[in-house]
Every structure is written in C-alpha cells, then in structure tokens.
Amino acid sequence: MCRKHIQGYPSIRIFRKGSDIRDDNGHHDHESYYGDRDTDTLVATMEALVSPVPKESKKLLMGDNDNGTNDTKRPAPLTGGCRIEGFVRVKKVPGNLVISARSGSHSFDPSQMNMSHVISHLSFGKRISSKMLSEVTKLTPYLGGSIDRLKDRVYMTQVTQHDVVNTNVTIEHYLQIVKTEVISRRYGRENKLIEEYEYTAHSSLVQSINIPAAKFHFELSPMMVLVTENPRSFSHFITNVCAIIGGVFTVAGILDSVLHNTLRLIKKVELGKNY
Questions:
Q1: Where is the segment annotated Disordered (predicted)?
Q2: Are residues 192 and 117 both part of a single domain?
Q3: Which tens digits make up the pLDDT trace of 53-108?
Q4: CA 66 – CA 55 distance, rounded (Å)
Q5: Are residues 165 and 255 part of one domain?
Q6: Pick from 268, 258, 122, 265: nearest CA to 198
Q7: What share of residues in the chain are helix, strand, coil (percent, to 5)?
Q8: N or C: which end of the chain has fewer CB within 10 A?
Q9: pTM > 0.70: yes or no
C-alpha cells in the first residue's frame, strides 16, 4: 500500500491510460476520489469517468474475448508492505516511537491491519565505521556487540501456535540504552575515540482496542560505561626492565647454588667422605 501511496482504507484511485499520476504545475500527485461515499455520488462519478472512453477501449480494459470469459491471471506481487528508512532526533530522556496508520480523512479497519515487520537495522547515536570499530575492539573486545541487537529480527502478529488468527495486535519493543565512551590519553591530552549506545531489547504482543501499531519504548540509563586508555610512562618501563633483570639474576643464583652443591656432594661420595 505504501509503495502505491495509498494512505487510507478504503481509497479510490483513478487511473487514466494505465497511470494515476497527474502533473499540476510541475507537482506530481496521485489522482484519487475525495468526494462523498454514498451510492448515487459514486455511480455518477464513475459514469462521468467512463463515458469519454471509447467502446473498443472498454472491451480491452474489461478483458472481453469471443467466449465471454476472462481466464487471465495476474501474478502475485513479489514483495509487499512498507519500508521505513531514516533517523529521528530525540532528547536523552525516555520516549516512544510509534509507527501506525493515521489520517483525518480516511477510515481504517483495525482487524485487517497486520503490523508484522522485520527490523533490518536499529541503532542509536552516530554510525561507527567498521575501521574505527575494529581499532577500538583491540582495546575492548566486547565493544560493538549490542549496537544493533534487533538486526534481522522478524516479528509476526497474524498466526499463533494453534493457527488462530490474531487481530488488533500491537507489537511493543522495550529498549534499555547504555552509553559507552572510549577515551585515549596520550601526551597529556584526551582524545575521544568512540561514543556508542548499546541496548538490550524485550518485545511483546499486546491486544489493542485501537488501531494496531509498532511501538518502540526507549529509555537511556543514567549510568555510563567509560573506557580509558592510559599510556605507560618511561619510569614504568624502567621499573619493568629492572624487575626482569633482577628476576633473571635471582633465578641464575638459585640454579648456580643448586648446581654447586650437587657437584660437591658427588665429589664427597666418590672420595668416601660422605658426611
């Protein structure tokens, strides 16, 4: 429906020569019927639209043939539904993102609306490049695992486990967001490497008395994860080198003492002077 820009039900779209696009002073719009929905007005409008069409064209449009039957079958569309893509600027406070059908000039049948959907991508904050993410992952391997937790998730509303059709079903997603910052300190300066928002998600199906919708409830946690990279100083390097050298000398002394005492014991045994 969204691919054809049908915004309400029932909608009456008017096609002329196979197209419903009309050009009004350079502005393209879809020609639709916005008049009264009573029987007399609808019949009069349809007769006014059909009367200028020649009879030969009517036969072609109605699919008439010699046998008086029409066995032409149209293939089912390969894809259906709507595709929503974009971003929304929100404040760092709890909020809701609701996707539903709304119109002041159209009526809807809630029992016929299916809010099943597939989430291809849902994240918060700026997009992080794969190169930057790979560099930061060297510092924190767990980073980036929950940026897009709902990716490729499928949510169905129509059929239950017992093959019973659900109607007026709203899908609600509850998202708990936690901010993570990675800061690098080098040469006395702080450099923010990355700022990301990871979240956990819980979803549920709710029977609704109103028009079904897909709702996303998000809440930003007051806690923040701060990862700081502190470079080691030169004195720390000297201390480690001294510790390594001292350990080598200690181990060498122990081995020398053990070897010396063993050789002396062997000589005493050979001379018969054991103890």
A1: 58-78
A2: yes
A3: 555 554 544 444 555 455 555 555 555 567 888 888 888 889 999 988 887 777 78
A4: 16
A5: no
A6: 122
A7: 25, 30, 45
A8: C
A9: no
Least confident of 103-107, 111-115, 138-142, 228-232: 138-142
What pLDDT does residue 156 have?
Answer: 84
Residue 12 belongs to a domain: yes
Token pair of 201 as six digits:
């998600």
Confidence at residue 218, expressed as pLDDT on a 0 to 100 scale = 93
What percent of the chain lies above the pLDDT cut of 70?
71
CA distance 10 to 64: 28
Number of domains in the chain: 3
Q: How far is CA 8 from the centre of its chain?
A: 27
Give every CB contact of residue 122 below 8 A, 6+ residues apart in sequence.
148, 150, 151, 216
Token duo for residue 127: 């997009």
Whole-angstrom Cα distance, residue 83 to residue 102? Answer: 17
Same domain, residue pair 79 and 120? no
For tokens 């040469």, name the residue.
187
Reference 219, options 155, 173, 180; nearest CA is 173
46 with 13: CB under 8 angstroms? no
At 270 the pLDDT is: 77
Give the length of the chain: 275
The DSSP 8-state label assigned to residue 237 in this structure reads H
Edge-to-edge order in the sheet of strand 189-207: 95-100, 213-229, 169-186, 189-207
Q: What is the mean pLDDT of the chain?
A: 76
Q: Is residue 218 located within the same domain as residue 240?
A: no
